[in-house]
Amino acid sequence: MFKPITIKDIAQALELSPSTVSRALSDSYEINEETKKRVIEYAEKHNYRRNPMASSLRQGRSYSIGVVVCEVANSFFSQAIDGIESVAYGKGYHVIISQSHDAYEREVVNMQHLANRAVDGLLISMSAETKDFSHIVNLHEQGLPIVFFDRIIDAFETHTVTSNNREGAMKATQSLIDRGFRKIAHLANAPHLSITAERLEGYEDALRQNGLALDESFIRCCHHGGRIQQEVEEAVRYFLSLPERPDAVFVASDRLSMGCLSAYNKLAPKSEHPAVAGFSNSDVLDLLQPNFTCVRQPAFEMGRMAMEMLIQLIESRYPVYDFENVVLQTELMMPHRISG
């Protein structure tokens, strides 16, 4: 069984007191340079690593950050996590990632588990099913620093980082209008999510600016955020059953875009597929639908900024009352080739 070397082991080998070794490893001015050099060389040679549990007990910090996202396999969230880690490890923090899979119960359990592991703070993107925020509010009231990114709530004041969802949705819908489509449906995420309302507004803006009437029957919400493919298929079946079928669909999220394209491939011949534009940071959707137009979010930058903001909250010596709500711009990626 692997047993890491301890400060006591180093002290015994060098015939020093454990407190002297500890101070030498902390570069204390109380220890002379020659002793420091001996201790550090021995520690490096024997792969000594600081015990994070012991350090956290001494300093009241664990140097670990909890990250709660719907799923790591989602291209947007995997890129955001890369951004989070790019900051965290440079600042001496470890990242513990948990997936809610867009389920409320899973989110509650995950957050409680992370809090019990004494993380120094939480980075959260809300699950599609979460309507009751009391589990998050309770942790906030207990003093745990929390920053939201992408899917945010306003249950209390803190830093947030999001995309310009309204403008991104408007650009995606406008791209379909520019290609000649007029009967544009909208496949939306769970109604209560912050991103859902903003992207719906962008869709409506584009229709209004082009003199197109808003048809409420052309809007379908997926309350589970695409977690249950059957729900997405039911929405696609509904679009296919309409007397006047949509000739294009604006899809509101990465996971829903994949689910929507898969559902059309399963339920209708290629000749009956509408044009699709939607939010996605994936590179594989082009394979499913060559003329897919996507709105890309700056996921890496979002994760990086959220992590920097959280570390600022954790390391602040005084209570923070000024919070930033950062909104990043999206990018419209036109298809490489248009078919049909």
Labels describing this entry:
44% helix, six-stranded parallel β-sheet, DNA-binding, six-stranded mixed β-sheet, Rossmann fold, alpha/beta, DNA-binding transcription activator activity, 12 strands, 13 helices, Transcriptional regulator, LacI family, transcription regulation, Peripla_BP/Lac1_sug-bd_dom, 340 residues
Summarize it:
The protein has helices spanning 7-14, 18-25, 33-45, 52-59, 75-88, 104-116, 134-141, 165-178, 194-209, 229-241, 254-267, 285-288, 299-315, and strands at residues 64-69, 94-99, 121-124, 146-149, 160-163, 184-188, 219-221, 248-251, 275-279, 293-296, 325-328, 331-333.
What does this structure look like?
This protein has 340 residues and is of the alpha/beta class. The protein has three domains: 43 residues, no CATH class; 133 residues, Response regulator (Rossmann fold), CATH 3.40.50; 133 residues, Response regulator (Rossmann fold, 3-Layer(aba) Sandwich). Helices cover 44% and strands 15% of the residues. The strands form two sheets. A six-stranded parallel β-sheet has the order 2-1-3-4-5-11, with helices on both faces. Strands 7-6-8-9-10-12 form a six-stranded mixed β-sheet, sandwiched between helices. Helix 1 packs across helix 2, helix 8 packs parallel to helix 9 and helix 10 packs across helix 11. The chain is elongated. It holds the Pfam family LacI.
Chart the SSEs and their pairings.
Elements: H1 7-14, H2 18-25, H3 33-45, H4 52-59, E1 64-69, H5 75-88, E2 94-99, H6 104-116, E3 121-124, H7 134-141, E4 146-149, E5 160-163, H8 165-178, E6 184-188, H9 194-209, E7 219-221, H10 229-241, E8 248-251, H11 254-267, E9 275-279, H12 285-288, E10 293-296, H13 299-315, E11 325-328, E12 331-333
Parallel strand pairs: 1-2, 1-3, 3-4, 4-5, 5-11, 6-7, 6-8, 8-9, 9-10
Antiparallel strand pairs: 10-12
